[in-house]
Amino acid sequence: MSNQDEMIEIEKFFLDGYDKHADEIFRHIAFRIFDRDRAKDILQDTFSRTWEYLVKGRKIDNPRAFLYKVANNLIIDEVKKRTHLSLDGLAEAGVQIEDPTRFENKLSISFDYKESVSLLEQLEEDYKRVMIMRYIEELSVKEIARVLGVSENLVSVRLNRALTKLRNLI
Amino acid sequence: MQEKLKQIFGKGKNFKLLPEEKQLIKSHLVLFARNNPLGKTNFLNLFFKPVFAASLITALLVGSASALAETALPGMLLYPIKIRVNEQVKEFLSFSSDAKAGWNIKIAERRLTEAEKLAAKGGLSFEIKTEISSRLTENFERFEINVKKIEESKKNDKIVLEINSDFEAVLEAHENILSQFSVLESKQKQEIKDLIGDVGVSVKRVAEMRRVQETLIASSTGLDIEMAARDKQKTARSEVEEAVRLLSDNQAHFEIEAYFKAGERLGEANKKISEGDRVMSEGKFGEAFTKFQEAMRTAQNARLLTSSAAELELKIEGNGLELELELEKE
């Protein structure tokens, strides 16, 4: 296969992957960092890094898993920078927990996600990840394990721990 | 409970990109892909596939010009592409104010590096200096607007402090590099002096903005600032270690006195980290955060100075500003 054929194929593969997975990855990023504009930047970075990986001649067998992995690394860097306030931290700072405008500003769309954000903020990153994939993306434990590259058992353990933590809040 | 969770989180599935947002990001990615084509593309092969040649040639030529323009200096043919295409496209590709502010810092660094490269060749004319100064001023104004937007929308003092601190480190490092040129070549002395003056004004403004944030953060409390301080402690330590390593690897680019002075500054950065460790153990996390940030700024400054000196093949002398003042007295 000539170089230009290869490039056309890579570009098609890349853009098909974008059309198929962009919404899901964006949603995942947004519910992890609670910032719509920043989520768009990170989504863009996720795909541009994926492109850079592809043009080095490397293959991606599982695009969805790859994209989640790249996005997760970027999210971790972002979370370290931002260190979102936990509800404890908010309470200590004198912010009323039931302040609805905080969530509107964060996700810039609607008040509908207030409860989701409020619950997710209680969780550590590993638990947040699996909860978003299970309850928002509705992936099975098997699918989550495949995407994250971990055992189904580990996914189940994390889900159970997350549920235990959230039990008292619901 | 499962049903309740499904009810709460189920709404989240409706959260997605708007169609125009999705299309806009896609177009950004296509632009990015065109500018970063497959590495082993052979131009000659294009002519054997006429069906695709036209679009590919256009894409690759645009990509090539854009890539070549990255090294252009003021006065060169491709410089307008660097400014009006590459840089504006990159700023345009960012959605959040933090990303835009980060890019403003990068632009300032690019302008100052251009000035230094020209100064090294004796090519910093009055016209070019004026053009660079004007772009720096314009960029700084955009930086202030973006920082203001971050303050208003996110209300996250730590991010604003970090951005201001990063910019201050970049500007100070380049102020120092330009000072080296002010004693090496008298033909451009006035242009370099003017540019140092302009940079100095920006340093003061950013430093003032940074101090305001430091005051706010130093007094903050809570889990959030504790976590941020612990993270900043780790980052500051690795930044200082990296700066020490880089300095040691590039000793040849420093006169002895300058080398020891740079080493002393990194020693001061380490002292700041120790001070930060101490106040952190007393539970003063806000204050610890600002001390670690200060250590980082010193280390970043040293790192930028060292890498610029290596790139420009300069030999850093004691303190360029002091030497310049001595010459003026003569």
UniProtKB/TrEMBL annotation, chain A:
Domain RNA polymerase sigma-70 region: 20-83
UniProt-listed NCBIfam families: sigma70-ECF
InterPro entries in alphabetical order: RNA_pol_sigma-70-like, RNA_pol_sigma-70_dom, RNA_pol_sigma70_r2, RNA_pol_sigma70_r4_t2, RNA_pol_sigma_r2, RNA_pol_sigma_r3/r4-like, WH-like_DNA-bd_sf
GO process terms (BP): DNA-templated transcription initiation
Alphabetically ordered keywords of this record: DNA-binding, Sigma factor, Transcription, Transcription regulation
Organism lineage string: Bacteria, Candidatus Brenneribacteriota
GO function terms (MF aspect): DNA binding; sigma factor activity
Protein name: RNA polymerase sigma factor
Highest taxon above the source species: Bacteria
Domain RNA polymerase sigma factor 70 region 4 type: 119-166
Organism: Candidatus Brennerbacteria bacterium RIFOXYD1_FULL_41_16
Cited PANTHER family: ECF RNA POLYMERASE SIGMA FACTOR SIGL, RNA POLYMERASE ECF-TYPE SIGMA FACTO
From TrEMBL, chain B:
Protein name: DUF5667 domain-containing protein
Species in which this protein is naturally found: Candidatus Brennerbacteria bacterium RIFOXYD1_FULL_41_16
Pfam (any one): DUF5667
Organism classification: Bacteria, Candidatus Brenneribacteriota
Domain named DUF5667: residues: 72-164
